């Protein structure tokens, strides 16, 4: 343990003098009393408390003063704490097929709701980013602890063309690797991919993106949104409408999760949500940091002062 203001510890040298002064005062008080009354009479009228009862409150109060002086010296200690920094990238499919209403009110709305639910449950210190996956993948919100920013990014997601799933996971991986903890290391990361699963376009093959994430130790957890009966309606020239079947396809999502060690979900309840951040927690590890202990000693001093005063009042009917 070290101290930021060690000169305050000089006050500890005065505590023995305080104890001696109290002892001398008690002795003088006894001598004065003995001059005016005999010992048997005093014992019958006002029995003197045992020595221990007179000394214990003093010892407690001296300990309180010692703790107070140590607190003034601003002690610091090296403690081991659990890491709390982690990065989660929400990669959300915004392709045209996500307009299908087989999941009410639509797949895209359900995807935003799943992402928002996840966001509301994870620890506050986790940094969250949003990547939108359409014809190309874009960062809608960089990693941040500000949940308002992330919620706004989710709320602004709108359907697009294409489903570049490989590009989306590759971009999510790059975004996470730019993050650093206070000691300069890359924090543990997880990607949560929310999609109906059907890949359409993109420059990066999903298998390539998955292998890259696996190499960096980033699990891809996937949430499948949609059913085999999904369809979208497309307006044609002449006022006609074409119905296009867009069944949910979990195979690409399953490939991501199997390759990277993630999990495929068809819904996101609290228990499944806990699995994701518990997996992250298992990789957080520990770190050593310098922590000021002033509050500990101040709290201890206050407790000792109260205890010493209470004992003195109960046993001696006075405060030293």
- Summing up helix and strand content along with how strands pair, one would put the structural category as alpha/beta
Largest sheet: 6 strands, mixed
What count of structural domains?
2
Q: Can you give the mean pLDDT? A: 79
Low-confidence runs: 41-46
Relevant CATH superfamily of the largest domain: von Willebrand factor, type A domain
Instruction: Tell me the strand order in the biggest sheet.
Output: 5-4-3-6-7-10
Number of strands: 11
- As for the CATH topology of the largest domain, it is Rossmann fold
Helix content: 40-55%
Radius of gyration: 34 Å
N-to-C span: 32 Å
Number of helices: 10
What multimeric state do the chains show?
A: single chain
CATH class of the largest domain: Alpha Beta
How much β-strand is present in the residues? 15-25%
**CATH architecture title of the largest domain:** 3-Layer(aba) Sandwich
Order of helices and strands: EHHHEEHEEHHEHEEEHEHEH
Explained architecture:
The protein is α/β, with parallel strands linked by helices. The protein has 10 helices and 11 strands. The strands form 3 sheets. It has a 6-stranded mixed β-sheet, sandwiched between helices. The protein has a 3-stranded antiparallel β-sheet with strand order 1-2-11. The protein has a two-stranded antiparallel ribbon with strand order 8-9. β3, α4 and β4 (127-133) form a beta-alpha-beta unit. It starts with a strand and ends with a helix.
């Amino acid at each position: 343990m070290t101290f930021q203001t060690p000169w305050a510890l000089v006050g500890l040298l005065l505590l023995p003098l305080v104890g001696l002064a109290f002892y001398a005062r008690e002795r003088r008080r006894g001598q004065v009393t003995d001059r005016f009354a005999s010992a048997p009479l005093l014992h019958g009228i006002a029995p003197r408390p045992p020595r221990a009862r007179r000394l214990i409150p003093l010892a407690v109060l001296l300990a309180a003063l010692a703790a107070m002086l140590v607190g003034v010296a601003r002690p610091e200690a090296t403690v081991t704490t659990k890491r709390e920094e982690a990065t989660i990238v929400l990669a959300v499919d915004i392709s045209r097929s996500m307009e299908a209403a087989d999941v009410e009110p639509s797949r895209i709305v359900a995807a935003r709701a799943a992402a928002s639910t996840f966001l509301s449950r994870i620890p506050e210190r986790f940094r969250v980013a949003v990547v939108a996956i359409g014809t190309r993948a874009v960062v809608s919100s960089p990693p941040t602890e500000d949940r308002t920013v992330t919620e706004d990014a989710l709320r602004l997601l709108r359907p697009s063309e294409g489903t570049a799933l490989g590009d989306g996971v590759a971009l999510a991986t790059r975004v996470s690797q730019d993050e650093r903890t206070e000691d300069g290391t890359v924090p543990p990361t997880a990607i949560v991919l929310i999609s109906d699963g059907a890949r359409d376009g993109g420059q990066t093959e999903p298998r390539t993106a998955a292998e890259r994430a696996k190499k960096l130790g980033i699990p891809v957890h996937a949430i499948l949104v949609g059913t085999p009966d999904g369809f979208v309606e497309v307006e044609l020239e002449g006022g006609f409408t074409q119905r296009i079947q867009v069944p949910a396809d979990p195979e690409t999502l399953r490939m991501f999760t199997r390759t990277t060690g993630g999990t495929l979900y068809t819904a996101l309840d609290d228990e499944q949500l806990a699995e994701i951040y518990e997996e992250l927690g298992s990789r957080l590890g520990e770190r050593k940091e310098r922590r000021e202990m002033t509050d500990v000693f101040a709290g201890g001093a206050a407790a000792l002062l109260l205890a010493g005063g209470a004992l003195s009042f109960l046993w001696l009917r006075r405060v030293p």
